[in-house]
């Protein structure tokens, strides 16, 4: 059931209105961490992180997602002060230099509030605003856009034999409940985007089933769907490729997700993802 008043083609992010109906959007991943699964330590200095973010914008990123805490399987949380020290200077400088919306990837209200104060307009929360009781009010009062993600368990233990009754229905039911809870708390429905949380407490089979049924999530929640599958472990299991060899698998998943109605793609490889989407749009434009 769709939430009343929602307009699935629009993503409101403070003073921004991102039109997801005209074309799909690419969210570039900028991890300023020493231990993220794919690019940990590559951009943990302010100068290199900002330079990488600027490069992603030049390559066609529509959104930059800056994170200062690894959420890979087995990871542990970092203190608020450490996370702020990592992300706030980077977000401040990027907001000064680029016009694309900036997202902060965090579960902590204090980090989100500080990031919004220096220019972030989206909060990407893997806990769907549940891990920190202050997060809901930070989002509501700022008018920030939100990514509500499904995760089973916590990053440290989420891959320890996750079990579902029926993974697509379970994830859809959870995200629908989080959308409704957020709206009841005073958050504008148009600020909300949902994410199935590929790799967050799911087996390879669970991930594949979800990717095959992404359209259900949009239908059940009434909100646009974001997917982050770039370079993830399940691609390596299916293809036998190491993390730095998973571009082709990532693009295959992106293209399949596009035809399932996904409107936002969180990716490591911005130019390649943008190119794949551009070609599909051109084909569709000529065959319309």
Describe this structure in words.
It is a single chain. With 288 residues, this protein is α/β, with parallel strands linked by helices. It has helices at 46-58, 80-97, 109-117, 135-142, 167-184, 204-211, 214-221, 233-239, 247-258, 270-287; strands at 10-13, 16-19, 25-31, 63-67, 102-105, 122-125, 145-149, 192-195, 226-227, 264-267. The strands form 2 sheets. It has an 8-stranded parallel beta sheet. Helix 1 links the parallel strand 3 and strand 4. Helix 2 runs parallel beside helix 3. The protein is globular, with a radius of gyration of 17 Å. It starts with 9 loop residues before the first strand and ends with a helix.
Topology:
Blueprint (H helix, E strand, L loop, with lengths): L9 E4 L2 E4 L5 E7 L14 H13 L4 E5 L12 H18 L4 E4 L3 H9 L4 E4 L9 H8 L2 E5 L17 H18 L7 E4 L8 H8 L2 H8 L4 E2 L5 H7 L7 H12 L5 E4 L2 H18 L1
Parallel strand pairs: 3-4, 3-10, 4-5, 5-6, 6-7, 7-8, 9-10
Antiparallel strand pairs: 1-2
């Amino acid at each position: 059931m769709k939430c009343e008043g929602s307009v699935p083609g629009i993503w409101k992010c403070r003073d921004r209105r991102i039109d997801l109906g005209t074309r799909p959007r690419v969210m570039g991943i900028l991890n300023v961490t020493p231990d993220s699964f794919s690019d940990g330590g590559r951009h943990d200095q302010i100068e290199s992180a900002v330079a990488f973010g600027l490069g992603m914008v030049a390559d066609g990123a529509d959104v930059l997602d800056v994170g200062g805490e690894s959420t890979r399987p087995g990871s542990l949380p970092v203190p608020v002060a450490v996370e702020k020290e990592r992300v706030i200077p980077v977000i401040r400088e990027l907001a000064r230099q680029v016009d694309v919306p900036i997202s902060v990837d965090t579960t902590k209200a204090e980090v989100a509030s500080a990031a919004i104060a220096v220019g972030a307009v989206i909060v990407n929360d893997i806990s769907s605003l549940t891990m920190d009781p202050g997060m809901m009010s930070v989002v509501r009062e700022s008018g920030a856009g939100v990514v509500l993600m499904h995760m089973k368990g916590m990053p440290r233990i989420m891959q320890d034999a996750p079990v579902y009754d029926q993974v697509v229905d379970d994830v859809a039911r959870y995200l629908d409940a989080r959308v409704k809870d957020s709206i009841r708390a005073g958050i504008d429905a148009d600020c909300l985007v949902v994410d199935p949380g590929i790799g967050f407490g799911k087996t390879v089979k669970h991930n594949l089933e979800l990717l095959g049924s992404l359209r259900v999530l949009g239908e059940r929640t009434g909100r646009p769907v974001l997917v982050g599958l770039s370079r993830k472990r399940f691609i390596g299991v299916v293809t036998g490729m190491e993390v730095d060899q998973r571009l082709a698998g990532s693009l295959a998943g992106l293209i399949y997700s596009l035809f399932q109605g996904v409107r936002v793609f969180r990716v490591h490889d911005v130019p390649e993802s943008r190119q794949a989407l551009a070609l599909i749009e051109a084909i569709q434009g000529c065959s319309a």
